[in-house]
Amino acid sequence: MRCVIARYPFDLTRTGVLASMKGVRPEFVTGASVTIGRRRYPVRQVGQVITRQDPRDFTAGEVVRAMTRLGFTCHDRPEDAPVSAGGPTVLRTASAPLGGTGPVAV
Fold first, then answer.
1. 63 in helix, strand or coil?
2. What distance, in Å, lies between the first and last C-alpha atoms of the chain?
3. H/E segment holding residue 101
4. What is the DSSP letter of 43?
5. DSSP 26
6. All residues at 6 or more sequence positions from 18 whose CB lies less than 8 Å from its CB, including other chains
7. What pLDDT, on the 0 to 100 scale, is given for residue 39?
8. Burial class of residue 36 in the structure, from the number of CB atoms within 10 Å of its CB (0-12 exposed, 13-18 middle, 19+ buried)
9. C-alpha span between 90 and 68 (Å, rounded)
């Protein structure tokens, strides 16, 4: 499929993207991301790998649009940390084992 990223045309395929991202360790996700295989990559990292361009040359939206057209699942923001439904969280301090103040409820 022909996609334009940073004003340059690229002929991308789903299998080509999978092959390009194979063996690439995902960076920490802070914004938009795309699921490729069983891993979740930042879209800017994916764009850098498949286009071999500097991530400052293209926008995340261009890569999201291309990955969506190829059938990959894109996410707007990282998943939030799970929230506990229980009572107050108990934190242990370093001085607790040494006879200090003990656990602190938050």
1. helix
2. 53
3. none
4. H
5. P
6. 36, 37
7. 93
8. buried
9. 43
Give just the sign of the alpha carbon dihedral 4, 36, 45, 24: negative
pLDDT digits (tens, 9 = 90+) for 77-96: 776 544 445 555 555 555 55
Residue tagged 């999978």 (tokens): 18
| Separation in Å, CA 64 to CA 13, 30, 99, 102 | 14, 15, 54, 49
- Angle value at C-alpha 54, between 51 and 56, nearest 5 degrees: 120
Collapsing DSSP states into helix, strand and coil, what is residue 64?
A: helix
Looking at residue 48, the DSSP 8-state letter turns out to be H
86/55 Cα distance (integer angstroms): 42
Geometric angle at alpha carbon 62, from 58 and 68, rounded to 5°: 145
Q: Are strands 33-36 and 8-11 parallel, antiparallel or unpaired?
A: unpaired
